[in-house]
Amino acid sequence: MADEFAKGFGILVTAGLGWLTLAGWYNTPGFEDTQLIAPDPAAANFYDTVAILLKDGLFWFAILGALTFWIVIPAIRQAREAYEGRAEN
Question: Of 15, 68, 72, 84, which has the most beta carbons under 10 Å away?
Fold first, then answer.
């Protein structure tokens, strides 16, 4: 179980840092304005568009990746063990 926690934590930290960096660049219009959660700016070129899409992808990868390793995989393993234990009886 510690292995799944470490994997989920690694995904959360790495993808979260990528999201935080890109959100700081593209979604912080000013120091005293809304920071990190301001609306996406109109993309000026191809690289801005790619970065904004990557930012959104990193956000969901951080959330869903951590939940997968912390909740889904342990629940599947526990259900499998319970099912195999019931099948033997």
Answer: 15
Number of neighbouring beta carbons within 10 Å of residue 7:
16
Three-class DSSP category at 89: coil
Q: Which amino acid is at 31?
A: F
Q: Name all contacts of 55-64 with Cβ < 8 Å and 24+ positions apart.
A: 55/18, 55/19, 55/22, 55/23, 55/26, 55/27, 58/15, 58/16, 58/18, 58/19, 58/22, 59/15, 59/19, 61/11, 61/15, 62/11, 62/12, 62/15, 62/16, 62/19
Sequential pLDDT tens for the chain (89 residues): 778 899 999 999 999 999 999 999 998 888 888 888 888 888 789 999 999 999 999 999 999 999 999 999 999 999 999 988 876 65
